[in-house]
Structures are given as C-alpha cells and as structure tokens.
Amino acid sequence: MTDTSTDTGAEAAPRTPGTRRGTGDPATRGRTTIADGVVAKIAGMAARDVVGVYAMGSGVARTFGAVRDRVPGGSRSVTRGVKAEVGEVQTALDLDIVVEYGVSIAAVSRTVRENVISAVERMSGLEVVEVNINVVDVKLPEGEEDDEERPPLQ
User: Fold this and answer.
1) Where are the beta strands (DSSP E) in the chain?
2) Are 113 and 133 contacting, i.e. CB atoms less than 8 angstroms apart?
3) Cα–Cα–Cα angle for 92, 131, 64, rounded to 5 degrees
4) Fewest CB within a 10 Å sphere: which of 48, 63, 96, 128?
C-alpha cells in the first residue's frame, strides 16, 4: 500500500486539554468584502458580451472615455455606464447602454439582465436584486445621420 499523506517534518504543537484549534468550517472564519468597482467590472463585461449592445455609458461618458482610450497608457474602462451598489449579501446595478439600430430593445435588455445577473451571482456570490437598464442611444448604420445633426430645412 502506498502512503499518500504529506509530511512536512514539523511536529504538531501540543494541545492542552479543553482547547481546540480552529473550530468550525474554515470558510466561516473571517469576512470577504467585494468593492462596488469589482461588481461593476463583472457587470460591464457581461453586458458588453450581448449581441446588440454597441456601447456603454451616456454621451458625455463615452466622449471622455474615447479621449482617454486614445491617450498612450490609457485603458478602456469596462465600468463605463455601470453603477453598482454593493451590500453585505446583495447588490443592485444601473446600466446605461447604447443599442445597435434594428435590434429589439426589449430582447437586448432581457439578455443583458440575464447575463449580468448570472455573471455577478456566479463570480461574487452576491444576490442581484435588480438590474436597471437605461437605453441612452441607438447606434445608426454608417452613413446615417441623427436628425439633431442635420441642418434645418429652409
């Protein structure tokens, strides 16, 4: 028979009667906290994975983000357009998204909500109590112009 135990050569510390080392499940010895930014990153990545989501964030956030993305050494913010409020066991999320023209906003929103909830709950262990989605814009096909950008007819 082969011995599969590992012996480090160190002797165990003697125990005095009535004392125990580390009682209970090791998983319950301490506390884990998850920052709002961590949950926001998870949610942002999950939302961007959905077909039909063109971008995240309001117009101003996207403009500043585009400038920051072009600066050497700057990094793309995966939390743009995501606000997370994290409690001890629950979290709530607000997402600002831009959808592609022609997609069903209801279907994209439903898929984003499902993806975000699944990813956040799986990775963080927090219960997602709500995911509020604010569709802030529609990405028009190339060559199309917004009515706001066209000069008024005379």
Assistant:
1) 53-56, 82-86, 90-100, 127-139
2) yes
3) 90
4) 63
The total number of residues written for the chain in this structure? 154
Structure tokens at 25: 């499940």
DSSP for 25-74 reads -GGGSS-----HHHHHHHHHHHHHTSTTEEEES-HHHHHHHHHHHHSTT-
How many Cα neighbours within 13 Å face the side chain of 79?
Answer: 11
CB 101 within 8 A of CB 137: no
* Predicted local distance difference test score (pLDDT) of residue 77: 85
What's the whole-model pTM score?
0.70
| Separation of alpha carbons 115 and 68, rounded Å | 27
> Do the Cβ atoms of 124 and 39 come closer than 8 Å?
yes
pLDDT of residue 31: 87
- Mean pLDDT for each 10-residue chunk of the chain (154 residues)? 49 58 78 95 98 88 48 70 97 98 98 98 98 97 65 56
Query: Token digits for 110?
Result: 């439903």
**Nearest Cα to Cα of residue 132 among 80, 104, 91, 76:** 91
